[in-house]
Amino acid sequence: xxxxxxxxxxxxxxxxxxxxxxxxxxxxxxxxxxxxxxxxxxxxxxxxxxxxxxxxxxxxxxxxxxxxxxxxxxxxxxxxxxxxxxxxxxxxxxxxxxxxxxxxxxxxxxxxxxxxxxxxxxxxxxxxxxxxxxxxxxxxxxxxxxxxxxxxxxxxxxxxxxxxxxxxxxxxxxxxxxxxxxxxxxxxxxxxxxxxxxxxxxxxxxxxxxxxxxxxxxxxxxxxxxxxxxxxxxxxxxxxxxxxxxxxxxxxxxxxxxxxxxxxxxxxxxxxxxxxxxxxxxxxxxxxxxxxxxxxxxxxxxxxxxxxxxxxxxxxxxxxxxxxxxxxxxxxxxxxxxxxxxxxxxxxxxxxxxxxxxxxxxxxxxxxxxxxxxxxxxxxxxxxxxxxxxxxxxxxxxxxxxxxxxxxxxxxxxxxxxxxxxxxxxxxxxxxxxxxxxxxxxxxxxxxxxxxxxxxxxxxxxxxxxxxxxxxxxxxxxxxxxxxxxxxxxxxxxxxxxxxxxxxxxxxxxxxxxxxxxxxxxxxxxxxxxxxxxxxxxxxxxxxxxxxxxxxxxxxxxxxxxxxxxxxxxxxxxxxxxxxxxxxxxxxxxxxxxxx
Length: 596
Hints:
Radius of gyration: 31 Å
Low-confidence stretches: 250-254, 584-596
Number of helices: 19
Strand content: 5-15%
Helix content: 40-55%
Number of strands: 13
Strand order of the largest sheet: 7-13-12-9-8
Largest sheet: 5 strands, mixed
Mean pLDDT: 81
Shape: elongated
């Protein structure tokens, strides 16, 4: 991570002056600015009032001051507990520590008009009515920011570029033997260091000893951090993520292209938007598709982190390094393939959101959840598996999915069921995606002119990791029948449905056999009242298929209970699968959608 940010600083150092390479971002919530306005008249500075405005691209020379440093780096500060009076005192201290023509004049004005200026600042700050809007304070001279004046730029550089504990040594980043002493912790303020590799050779105890930096590398690293904060950071649920490209050879010149063309349209990985096909998508899927088409970078680093409340410290909770374009292409292609194959089953989308929901919900059910914005450990492991190609624990995913979905379904209100069933289909799609990603298989849209049995076998062949034997195929078909019977029961107003019998997706082989008998008996009863004979024939065909797989499975089933129940869940999500068959008894009028 450190070297990736350093490379970004090198690539963009010509676009910024020396002070801008060392300034820090004020933060996204500081959108308003109160300016102390000074005017020059007869070569003398005069106070002309305060004004509330919006933050601009001006060079405010802002950098957070360390607690041990009494004077700020410039005449730009965020509010403090001491209020505006405390900020004015610190501005005066800055002018005393950095005497000059402008600084001397500002010190006199602030000292002589302190009460009036404090009152004006408070009056302007009271105009902010938005709950999440905050202001910072700065000085304008003839309408120009402090960064426009050489006197203040020089003072800023002299302070920031001081090497603490200066000594001779080898710079960690450039490898030159020179004067070192700058600390990485002056730029990256880590609350904890719990992700091996994201900050090579850094320890909790001593950043500057293990990672000494010369002044030039310190400046480049600071600039890279600023660009990463401004342009390469996206929101990720309750946290954030750096998307950090690394470059090699002629790709170095394309770094700006990556930032402007690929990342600039995205502010979040979790917001929804309407895509070209008019369907709502997630930025995450669109972003991955864009990154998979990029040739500007060599590899990508994804650094997921949360910020400590009220501090600039960050906790890196997941670091995924050196993801090549080929992996991004594999992710995008596999997701597209699965979505295309399942289009007839409600068009589920492959999204990180479903992993988030499953493992967040699973943690809550196990009472392992907390208010921390850091995602559950299981979720992080699956994110790593997706990007790095390690094997995902599908058994864990199946177990977590079924517990989450059962709780969701049984506690949902009637008006929430549409979203619940879409989540179920997305759960199934994500499972197929996770397996296919590391076990490539030529998929494709099912042949609609085939018989139901042929269509079903072709479907099972597309996902061999889930339907490897006849007992799994049987529970899949039972799931299909179950969903159709539940639909009839709800349509006819029954208070209790077959859902109460599935034991939280913990059914054993005997439970499945008993449930199939129950479904057959119930359907015989319901069919006597149904006028649509084609629908009766369709479900009858499903019972025939179930009987065939039950005969082949025999008495001793070999699959685990988790696999059996998950196949049942997949069947529920696929109840309309065989309605695309060309066999004549199918009638589109009987497509009883749970989602409606």
